[in-house]
């Protein structure tokens, strides 16, 4: 294929600014999809994604577009829109020469827009600015255009006005893609060098690998190798993606395609890896490859302890199609057998939890999520802390280090005060404050990741009445005074309720948690002491008083069926209870830590 007739591009947009709607319009306009095939939000095809309105996995789609009587091949590469998936975004961007920058004309530029835009600019992508939703009565194209001009230094005439809803500006966008985005460079005769930018799990056909060829040509049946994993495969099927797959015999430099080679496990396919030929390999792997690392760790336990093996089987299946999920078996005195899992972030964790429940019918308890801390031990080695139980004895280490992020928050000037206050409460340090317009401010903070992963974003939304957007990326580790906080019920530590927290916050955390548990732990035949402790030091205490009467007492002499009903009811209640020492703890108690405010 003539490389001069190929354009590879992605769409950069903040969530809800209209990326999916516009993408659908482009497919419609180019007749890639017929009216009949047209569903809302074609690119978001997983149920979960559709409900959340987030494109979780990036896909690619090829369109044919005739411009000045020449046919062009346009490859649209979809990028995930959430910070948990920023490495995937960076690889999708690396597969393109240009990007549509879509900004909602009624909302203006948001944090996610800026971070992804910077990524695109780092990769020298040609940026085509588009103001979307100009049909909205609240749209302020003039004001938002000023923001965009400030941001990318374009001319006002370069900005395309569009409405995904009404279909305006679609042809202008397609023309700009052809006119402004450079054709790919590369040489089809050189050794094969193709980058994997995504993979899609298909239970019947194995993993479908999406790639962009930079140099060389891949042919059906070729013997190929993934450079970073060192694994070798046969290219059983290659092709390009429309609404359905279109198998091809060759795909050469500049183009985008899919590969099927019987790979059964998602983990074998690493985004960012390079595909080359076994016989005539390329000299270098494509730059920018990283092994994605989990950022958030939590225990997952079956509510019903007899379902452990079933949970294991479900986790194994999930892992087949989710390369970023990691787990290993773990035991908890309170919860029994379960798994310590690593996630890319909180959204990823919620997705896994939901998929376990929906796709596998499991009911699970998730323990307090935690980031990965590192202890600098007395012998100068580092010990990784993925769970409170990994925390070494304070006499054995010099200090604990925790991951810090660089966070960007964009809000209205009215909310600058409350936002700064919230960030300081979360141990953040303000680094910069930039006025994007008279009314909108970007605030930059250094913050501990541990403070962001919980409910930070919800709090931010609340204090700013929804007018705040957040983006962050991981920077470095800093020494922090972290301690392990334990919760005891009648003197017995409930391991599933332990957490690693900052010393200055431990007292507050312990107090709130004890109060919350007091509400949740039902009265029993004896008094229950709820205590929070750091080491042997008790820092908070609450008491659940003993029950005054036996529940059955009121049934004495009463009819037997009523008694049986009561007992049955108790038994049902018990199913969701866990025995800790002599205390019965309801399942919600283990989640209480997540809801401390
Ligand atoms: P994404 O999150 O960026 O993919 O955004 P979507 O395409 O899912 O759009 C988010 C919401 O905005 C949906 O409710 C769309 O119907 C709506 N929307 C998208 N484009 C337009 C537009 O041009 N005008 C109006 N009024 N609404 C739009
Ligand atoms: Mg979308």
UniProtKB/TrEMBL annotation:
The keyword Transferase does not apply. One of its GO terms (molecular function) is translation elongation factor activity. It catalyses: GTP + H2O = GDP + phosphate + H(+). PROSITE patterns: G_TR_2 (PS51722). Pfam families: EFG_C (PF00679), GTP_EFTU (PF00009), GTP_EFTU_D2 (PF03144), LepA_C (PF06421). GTP binds at residues 16-21, 132-135. Residues 4-185 form the Tr-type G domain. It is found in: Cell membrane. It comes from the Bacteria. The keyword Amino-acid biosynthesis does not apply. Keywords: Cell membrane, Elongation factor, GTP-binding, Hydrolase, Membrane, Nucleotide-binding, Protein biosynthesis. It is a peripheral membrane protein. Its EC number is 3.6.5.n1. Belongs to the TRAFAC class translation factor GTPase superfamily. Classic translation factor GTPase family. LepA subfamily. Required for accurate and efficient protein synthesis under certain stress conditions. May act as a fidelity factor of the translation reaction, by catalyzing a one-codon backward translocation of tRNAs on improperly translocated ribosomes. Back-translocation proceeds from a post-translocation (POST) complex to a pre-translocation (PRE) complex, thus giving elongation factor G a second chance to translocate the tRNAs correctly. Binds to ribosomes in a GTP-dependent manner. This is Elongation factor 4. It comes from Echinicola rosea. The gene is lepA.
